[in-house]
Amino acid sequence: MIGVYRLYMVDDEVPAAPRSVRVINATSTSFYVTWSPATPSRGPLVAYRVAYWKESTSLLDAVSGTVLVNDVTVPGTLIAGLAPYSRYHLRV
């Protein structure tokens, strides 16, 4: 049969994680998280995803928020609007 076929390539390899993740300039309701850029393993890196959640919950139960950093040349982002004086976990 002659026709038009679309081929989608899926990169099933997760890129390397960023290094030296740290929190700076923390206030009672916000913090700035920075990192050293990840080394792309296959193809260009297009974004970073930062997930954060309160210490009293697990990542599986309730992610408080997710920030997508589309500019990979800026290795950091501000997380704001947090519950005052609470502890948070994060993952980049």
Task: Supply the number of helical segments.
Answer: 0
Overall number of structural domains: 1
Beta-strand portion reads 25-35%
CATH architecture: Sandwich
Spatial strand arrangement across the major sheet: 1-2-5
Query: What order do the SSEs take from the amino end to the carboxyl end, as H and E?
Result: EEEEEE
Rg, Å, rounded: 17 Å
- Helix fraction, binned, reads under 10%
Give a quick summary of the entry.
The protein has 92 residues and is an all-beta fold. Helices cover 0% and strands 35% of the residues.
Outline the structure in words:
This protein is mainly β and 92 residues long. The protein has a single domain, classed as Sandwich (Immunoglobulin-like). The chain is 0% helix and 35% strand. It has no helices and six strands. The protein has strands at residues 19-24, 31-36, 48-54, 65-69, 76-79, 88-91. Strands 1-2-5 form a three-stranded antiparallel β-sheet, with no helix packed on it. The model has no long low-confidence stretch (mean pLDDT 80).
Task: Tag the structure with descriptive keywords.
single chain, 92 residues, mainly beta, Immunoglobulin-like, three-stranded antiparallel sheet, 0% helix, elongated
List the helices and strands and how they pair.
Layout: E1 19-24, E2 31-36, E3 48-54, E4 65-69, E5 76-79, E6 88-91
Antiparallel strand pairs: 1-2, 2-5, 3-4, 3-6
